[in-house]
Fold this sequence. Notes:
Distance between the termini: 31 Å
Number of helices: 6
CATH class of the domain at 50-105 and 159-222: Alpha Beta
Strand order of the largest sheet: 3-2-1-4-5-10-9-11
Number of strands: 11
Mean pLDDT: 87
CATH superfamily of the domain at 50-105 and 159-222: Vaccinia Virus protein VP39
Structural class: alpha/beta
CATH topology of the domain at 50-105 and 159-222: Rossmann fold
Largest sheet: 8 strands, mixed
Amino acid sequence: MCEIGASFGGSTDLLASIPNVSLTVIDPCLDCSLEEKYALNKHITVKRGISLEVLPVLDETYDCIIIDGDHNWYTVYHELKVISDRNLLNPSGIIFFHDTGWPWGRRDMYYQPELIPHEYRQDIEKKGLVWGQSSLVDSGGSFLGVSKATHEGGSRNGVLAAIEDFVREQKGEYDFLDVRVGQGLGIMYHHKSFAHDTPFLVVTAKALTLNALRWPIRLTKTYARRSPHQASLP
């Protein structure tokens, strides 16, 4: 497995508890030294740096990749491009995404905005967010102090937009599920053959079951040949 974005290692601890898992962690270690934290764990390898510098030099492939790093269009889209171009995800492998829902599904957020090329960076401020409102608020709201796009929606804006743009370009090589629970869970599957589709079918079945049991959750399936807003699973 490969985890992109670990912060203090909360999710890393859970992943490392899975039997027989070898985990590569990519993180700039702005919150803590993950190298020190996992120095004695032989199943975890920490690659310190930003994802778009580390991914191009990896020499392994993965059955599962978790993307939970910088939540903006430029970073997520180009992470997926590198993963695809370098075949870092094994055939029938799965990519999981965090924050495909509000607030970062349709709005860029930047941990280090100076690292994003100017032409891809939205106008940004550090004001607060209010659910259902595109513009930022002068006082109160959520995520104060975080650099974020001044508006929601539009082209090249947000995690979900990046995924949709990538999937459309791949001409059916990937399927994507958006499970709208919490701040959003995205699941992308890399096709190999029908015989190898079982892991993704199992995940799909579990997501549909979750959808049926908890009515606020919606699950949509995006195909490269369709508009990302057309196809849906009830």
